[in-house]
Amino acid sequence: MREVTFQDALEIIEALPEEQRESLMEIVRHRLVDERRERLAQSIKEAKEEYRRGEFKKGSLKDLISDLEK
Q: Does residue 24 sit within a domain?
């Protein structure tokens, strides 16, 4: 099976009737939202585990910005 390029996908989508393209956009949009929600939930779960294990730092906003600049 050959790999589909981004351009191939666009051409396939453009060949669909307008109603199907709109449905496809809604489906993709919802899937992206779901993926982001899952990543956020996983990040929260990991942060809670780190907190439970005592693996967190306390500090000011200045400390945070300093750590981010490293």
A: yes
Q: Full-prediction pTM beyond 0.70?
A: no
Q: What is the 3-state secondary structure (H, E, C) of the chain?
A: CCCCCHHHHHHHHHHCCHHHHHHHHHHHHHHHHHHHHHHHHHHHHHHHHHHHCCCCCCCCHHHHHHHHCC
Q: What are 18-57's pLDDT values in tens digits? A: 999 999 999 999 999 999 999 999 999 999 999 899 987 7
Number of domains within the chain: 1
